Amino acid sequence: MRISGYRTRVVTVPVTDVAVQPTMSTYVLLELQTSEGVVGLAYANRISPAHTRGFVQLLAAALEQLVGRDPLCIERIVSPPAGGGGLAASVFRRAGSWPGAQPRVASTIDVALWDIKAKAAGLPVHVLLGGYRDRVPCYAGWRIEPGTTEATALGDSAKHLVDHGFRAMKFHVRHLDEQGLVAHMRELRAAVGPDVDVMVDNYQGWDLKEAIRAARALAELDPYWLEDPMPLDDYDGMRALRAACDVRVCAGEQYRDLASFRRLLEHRSVDIAMVDLDLGITGFTKVAHLAEAFGVPVVSHLATEVMAPCVGAVPNGLTVEYVPYAEPFLHEPLQLEDGQLILSQRPGVGIEFDDAAVRRLAA
Question: Structural domain of residue 113, as residue ranges?
Answer without folding.
Answer: 3-122+354-361
